[in-house]
User: Fold this.
Amino acid sequence: MFGKTKFEVRQAEGYRYIDLADSKKEGRTLVLLHGMFGGLSNFDPLLNRVQHRSVFVPEIPVYSLEKARLTIPELANWLSQVLKEHAVKQPILLGNSMGGHIALQYALTHPDEVEALVLTGSSGLFENDLGSSRPKRYDREYVKERASLTFYEDLVDDTIIDEILEILQSPSKLGRLLRVARSTHEHNLEDKLNQVQQPVLLIWGKNDVITPPEVAELFCEKLPNATLAWIDRCGHAPMMEHPDKFAARLINFLETNQCSRNNEEQHEEDYSHH
Assistant:
């Protein structure tokens, strides 16, 4: 969703992807996982700022996988297959919304195959999203109202509305979307988060109404090695709304596996350490 990516898109069997991973780039491969209504272009602002690093972005094939595989555990299995196909070992998984949920599930089922996690607006505990309820009909006004919940600023334009309507007006795509949405609500990970031993950076919008601040705080409390970074005047997709701040926090975490306080920016972002 949100238009076409400006980066080169490659085609594999059953999915598309962006690959900025090669031996000349820095560090472990950073794997970016978009949300349920998301797509490759969601990460364009971030990719512009981390091109010096090894990055791999698969497009999660919600609308082409067999329906039986449209659950969080099965999507984590799909991710495992994809990473093996591309010889991505010990990745740092960065997930937004549903992508964070998949990243957590992958870390739980493949604990020795993940170096670290970065979660932003992740589902897995509680989320209030467009797929959680089905109105009698979808119209432009309703879609704009719901889609606008993603952002603090008004970033929803006609292109975004058209993309969402195209999905919602397709019985096949809508059915798949609702199946995934149901899994994100049913597959609660609260009781399993203490098993995630990797360093985890939580980057959260203070104004997120889909996964509100208390969700971030609960993640930070339950994950044994988590750090929470807030971004003010920001909604559910911080990497899109505030890519500079997001990239700065991400790069610092990748270099140190922790987010330390920055006195110069403390008035804009607060940090919690667990």
Q: What stands out?
A: The first helix runs from residue 44 to 47.
